[in-house]
Amino acid sequence: MQISKAIQAYCAHRRARYSQGRETVADMLQVMDRKATGEEIWLELSQRGYRISESAVYVHLRWLTDNGFAQKCKGQGRMAEYFLTRSGSAPLK
C-alpha cells in the first residue's frame, strides 16, 4: 500500500484531520527510499516546485513519527534522520 493511502485510511479511521502537507512529506520520504533529514526532504520538495517551509516539514515529520508512519534516528552531529515504517515498527525496506 502506498504511504499516502495508508495516511488517508488512518485519518478516516481515527477521524483525524487530513493534511496534504504530511502526505507530501511522507510521499517524498518514500520516493527518496533512504534515511533523510528534514532539511534534505525540504530541499528536495523545494527543487520539485512544492511551496512548503522547512518548519512545516518538521511539523509533518513529527506527526508521522508520533502516529507510527516514520521513525526518527540519530544522524550526523545534531541532525536527526527519518525513515518510513510499516505498521509503525518495521522499516519498509
Keyword list:
disordered C terminus, Arc Repressor Mutant, subunit A, 3-stranded antiparallel sheet, alpha+beta
Helix content bin: 40-55%
Main sheet overview: 3 strands, antiparallel
The CATH architecture term is Orthogonal Bundle
- What is the terminal separation in angstroms? 13 Å
Predict the CATH topology: Arc Repressor Mutant, subunit A
Strand and helix order: HHHHEEE
Mean pLDDT: 87
Assigned CATH superfamily: Winged helix-like DNA-binding domain superfamily/Winged helix DNA-binding domain
Computed over alpha carbons, the radius of gyration is 12 Å
Number of domains: 1
Strand content: 15-25%
How does this model look, in words?
Helix content is 52%, strand content 15%. Strands 1-2-3 form a three-stranded antiparallel sheet. The chain is α+β, with helices and mostly antiparallel strands and 93 residues long. Helix 2 crosses helix 3, helix 2 packs across helix 4 and helix 3 packs across helix 4. Strand 2 and strand 3 form a beta hairpin. The protein contains four helices and three strands; from the N terminus they run ααααβββ. The longest helix has 13 residues. The protein has a single domain, classed as Winged helix-like DNA-binding domain superfamily/Winged helix DNA-binding domain (Arc Repressor Mutant, subunit A).
